[in-house]
Amino acid sequence: MMTYLQKFNHRNLKERLIKLFFSGTSITALVILISIFAFLFITGIQTFSEISIIDFIFGANWNPTAYAEPAWGILALVVGTLMITIGSLVIAIPLGIASAIYLAEIANPKVREILKPIIEMIASIPSVVLGLIGILFLSPLIAKIFGLSNGLNALTASIVVGIMVLPTIISISEDVLTSLPNEFREASLALGSTKWQTIRMTLLPAAMPGIMAAVMLGLGRAVGETMAVLMVAGNARAMPFSFFDPVRPMTANIAIEIKEVVKGSLHYNALFAIGLVLFIMTFIVNFLSDLIIERQARKYKW
Amino acid sequence: MVNETVRQNMYFTLFRIATFFSVLILLFVMLYVLKEGIGVINIKFLTSMWSHRDITQGGILPAIVGTLFLGIGVAIISIPIGISTAIYLNEYAKDTFFTRMIKLAIRNLAGVPSVVYGLFGLAVFVMFLNLGTSLIAASLTLGCMTLPWIITTSEEALKSVPLSFREGSYALGSTKWQTIKKNVLPHSMSGMLTGSILGVSRAMGETAPIIMVGATFFMAYLPTSVFDKFMALPYHLFILATQHSSPYSREYALGTALVLIVMVFLLNLGVFIIRYRLRRKKDW
To answer: What interface predicted TM-score (ipTM) does this complex get?
Structure first.
């Protein structure tokens, strides 16, 4: 009897240790997120001991290496990021939602099974390769079409980033549409609606929150995209006024300048402050889309 | 009614065109890189060291090796932690505040821009832990970036194992760990590993973070320790495309892109085939 109890306890202890091990490793993700924020914050915040936060956010001129009077305003960079984000979404939203509707509702299942992984494969093209094609193929084409001397501008970057966010939007919107209960379709068709009327008046309204979330996830990716915009956006620090102007988004600015700065200098700290702004922007976007997806998922149980 | 049918056909045709356009983009990218890049591919290009003076005399071996080492490093760091986190979340965790925080962190980590991971890696691994710009610092940085993808796909693999598998095992008196080890992992391990490989293959194509934490454009030798710098295919092609003065840099950038794409797509294709076979074998 005694030995049985001892053995039982031993087994119990082992089970508990294993559980402890798994829960211990799962903290890693939380630790990483918190330390990303902490390190960005601690380094970035030091910028503001020398530069006012108002000048940093609303200054239109970014020129930290100027000999006479360095300027530390990120507004032009933020505008660059926003232009490319909006431009890419204008391209990716209609294309993405149309493809999602086709895959979910129109295509026959066999075609869908082949096309969906192919489209998701776009996500696995390294962004530097898309940037290369942007430089070599797309920007000369854009320059020719619009009669520009140089095709490296916000428009070209928007197209390349639009391609990059396309798979995100298609894949999630398609999941949302297929997860809608079949009764929705049957009820609408039973009332004599055509398939398109069913999609337009029943399925799309029901899926709208989920599609919104897909768009916001795409938006988060567009804001954070670095290599493609670094290569094709033109890299000018001046405030852009149209989509034909070259721009330098925040991500590209960090990637260009971080190699050249002295560690611990004001410039180094300021780049971390830009990183902090990026982190907060994407965090808010992801948090909101997450909230929407969770609500939608609870409603239709996918 | 006739009008409705016409309208429906019009819209459906539009949607079909949109879908095929998306597919065309992928085909175009592959064909363009293949057509323009194949010219410089030969045995010498793939197997010799990089020649800095005359790029036509050298090869990209160190960049291929560097990217492979990086992939291995990322896999070693992120796959064990990723899979065991997924096991905890799916098999052990109850819906507590702690679990919800971890899930929130995972989803938000997946949305952090890669350039921010680069800053993080620079501040933590390169400077704070004093690893220098090195293979190990880059592997750790990209490992952090890959972790949320691996956790998410591993969780999906675990969820696809029916509950009855676990209940049957408990009914026979097995403990939780015995159940997981004998009845859950054997049916989900391949799914978890294939998903993880996809995550690692995406990390191998990343450029922005490794610019900051260890990649270099020119190295006269292959990395011999984890504290060495390394060359990497994506960074190599980025420099060739944007900052190199040789008249041949365009062809060589495309050749490098081709090697990178083939590496990433072979991994993807392998995963796709394995999964397809597994799905047909499953009979629950």
So the answer is: 0.89
